[in-house]
Known about the structure:
By secondary structure, this protein is α/β, with parallel strands linked by helices. It has three domains: 8-84, Archaeosine Trna-guanine Transglycosylase, Chain: A, domain 4; 119-253, 3-Layer(aba) Sandwich (Rossmann fold), CATH 3.40.50; 262-491. It contains 16 helices and 23 strands. The strands form six sheets. The chain has a seven-stranded parallel β-sheet with strand order 19-20-18-17-21-22-23, sandwiched between helices. A four-stranded antiparallel β-sheet has the order 1-2-5-8, with no helix packed on it. Strand 6 and strand 7 form a beta hairpin. The radius of gyration is 24 Å and the shape is globular.
Amino acid sequence: MLQAADLTIRLNAADDVVISRTELPAGSELLNEKVRTAVTIPAGHKIATRSLKPGDAVRRYNQIIGFVTQPVNPGDHVHVHNLAMGDFERDYSFGTDYAPTEFVAEPATFMGIKRADGRVATRNYIGVISSVNCSAHVCRMIAKYFDDDFMAQYPAVDGVVPIHHRTGCGMSADGEPIDVLRRTLGGYAVHPNFHSSLLIGLGCEANQINNLLASQGLKRNEHLKAFTIQDTGGTRKTVDHGIGMIKDMLPEANKVSREDLPASHLTLGLECGGSDGYSGISANPALGAAADLLVMHGGSAILSETPEVYGAEHLLTRRAVSREVGEKLIKRIKWWEDYTTRLGGEMNNNPSPGNKAGGLTTILEKSLGAVAKGGTQGLMDVYEYAEHVTQRGFVFMDTPGYDPVSVTGHVAGGANVICFTTGRGSAYGCKPAPSIKLATNSAMFGKQEEDMDVNCGVIVDGTASIEEVGQQTFELILKVASGEKSKSEQWGYGEDEFAPWVLGPTM
């Protein structure tokens, strides 16, 4: 456990920097490091503890986070003005750190909803899903009809959720971009947290509903209805038709009940957004500890955001169950290097301005903190975006770093709970899966307590350990999976955050 009296946090004896707990005025004496701060150091930022010359690698977590661009003296502020990205060799050592999971003797349970086909839900919604932006408005109109007063008749149904987006046409009817979109929509249409779904198109779009269903091996049935505005006869007839269908579905959907089920039925999406210098010290490792516990109880945890593990991927390949799995991750890294080059970008376009204000300097530094969400268990498989996750244990999904797009991939892949860490104060939710928010520092938690579910800042404060907050988070996951509303659910977040990954040009 960190000592509350320390002004700074040292993560590894070999590190070249320490992290400030609070804003430190110039001249502050760091007794443990035997240096004085040369300038005012913002909270969560890095302070040099030894002299460094241009070209020297800088270590945090005993891993390279960047290279010095101008002379650095002990006590200097280390950030964008004197530290930059650089290329270096990573030793992937596939599988050298893999160890089989030691499962607990008596797995934890939660109160879940068991579907007729054996899948398990944590929520019980009805979805109204647009195949194309042109049908987004009617989806919202249909869902809006089922307000709180109407839904009071069906207390076992959590609501009617519109799932709409800005694409589905202006693209080729074949190829990777539309394949990704169809995989995403198909995953939502049959997500266990949706008792039933309506899939609504315009009729003339590139993303034809019949082709979408066929590509995902789906067929219309009592739980999946599909139609178009043009075939139904326009906006009013489509809205009335959809409302009538949902009215017919609601009595059956209301018959569900929760039962005691093993935690092995939980698939947890791991996300971070609005990160700061504390993310890799508090909330991310605490979430990693919770993910480890879930895996040890038989569940699954999905790490993602490929651009935000860049530079730290070697820590994951070492944990791979096989060389094949490790190389699947590197294949996705190479794809991203090519993708960003073709678009005239670079992998270090991350961190964001907010991340930098919070103390993160390079993508290498951010990635090292981000992978901490993945805990310590073996990497069992690597999935493409929105691909259905079937492997139990810790897995990776290839997604962008942008939070709504990343979590949309998790949910499409079957995640029925999300945990989201933040240091800057991201406000987020993602129906139909509940989202639990973890704050990295106590100051932000105090300001946004109505949005945050867990204060991981107590780790930085020195009043709780990573393991203790990890256990607290694991227990909260079970409660939320059992029906307890998270803070984002209490505010109603989740109807506007559906954001499929858009690949390729819009024509």
